[in-house]
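Show me any protein, fold above all:
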Amino acid sequence: MMDQRQDTDHAEDDAPRISTGSTGLDSILGGGLDADRLYLYEGRPGTGKTTIALQFLLEGVRRAERTLYITLSETKRELRVVARRHGWSLDSIDVFELVPPETTLDPDQELTVFHPAEVDLSETVKLIFAEVGRLNPARVVLDSLSELRLLAQSPLRYRRQVLALKHFFSSRQCTIVMLDDLSSQENDLQLHSIAHGVVLLEQLAIDYGAERRRLRVVKMRGIKFRGGFHDFTIEKGGLEIYPRLIAAEHHKVFLGEFVPSGNEKLDMMLGGGLERGTNALLIGAAGVGKSSLALTYAIAAAERGERAVIFAFDEGRGTIEARARTLGLPLEEKIAAGLLRLQQIDPAELAPGEFAAHVRRSVERDGAKVVVIDSLNGYLNAMPDERFLILQMHELLTYLGQQGALTILVLAQHGLVGPMETPLDISYLSDAVLMLRYFEYAGSVRRALSVVKKRSGDHEHTIREFRLTKQGIDLGLPLRDFSGIFSGTPQYIGDKTPLMRDDADA
């Protein structure tokens, strides 16, 4: 007898999971749900519960399973509107209404409609049992528990009826998802103890921009899941869930070779160049040349036949293309060839989890070897809380490093000359830091560049003047006869000027 029980337990352990209908949620759960169990999706109205519940049933339809949607809060007409906006059809899903009709019933409509207010809770549950027994579905959605809670009128009676539902479905080969809109004043932890798994959906209103939605698996018996909050959006076709990035889950073997910048003098300053699997922070005032330097790396990658991607938070495509033409960089040519992709990001509309998903797709699907994020100031607007931005960036940079990509980060400092203020200190996460500064000399504004940090090897410690020319970035000799260049007001102590000459002066 003991051996038979153990064999049964092993069979259940080895039983295949069933898909939730959402690739993102399946990934969070490590493969999906255990079949023939009772699950709870809870969240305030507007968080997407109905949409993800329909995805669950439509996945069953794709697998030729019988599915049933029991609704106590919405009519079939309302469900059809939701489905139509996602491009779905409910023709293969049985819908059992237990809600008052909004209009005169269609006599040809084969639906039984009841008024929950006119029958007690026990009768409503019996009607559910009868319909499930008649159809024998493999997947059921019950929408919603708030109606049952109102009918019960007492927590004890409500819990008993939910337990009755659980026991009834446990004797059948059926997976049930119950929806709860959290209309009760206090969190129903008793319901959590009854359900095999609980998924919480939230909608957050921020001070500016679109609302943010996120999901969290509260519990899941016997299933190892990815904890924490995961951003998601409601798109045509259902919920697009972006599982929280965990860099330790992604590692790729690669050679840590140098990545040429396309400028020999710059590579020499960097001790041979930046290596694959590292990241570099370009920091300086607005307009000093950070984006131009980052663009140089992306174009150089495309020239070698590698793919690169630029995520532009601050500038439009037209501005970036104009800059490239001024520097003589064939940006439009490389975009047309499919070697470089330019994606403009609106930080007011994009959640950090969604941005991380875009980066992952660029690396894993498109094979990008150089990733430019321009700039972190714009990314900071997408994540107002600096603490979480640092955590997000740590995971993202670690992931990119393990994938063998070179990441170029741009960060604008406040001010133009003199003392500079950095809105975010992320230098400790960077493998290399390049400082770009304006400085004034003899009544003219000039630009200086220095490598102030490089973890992976030796580098030049000098400060060099640089210019943005029609042939790209040009570097001058080390400014050894100057002091105080990074303060914006240098002092010249040499015999002859080492500064770069204008074409007119040559």
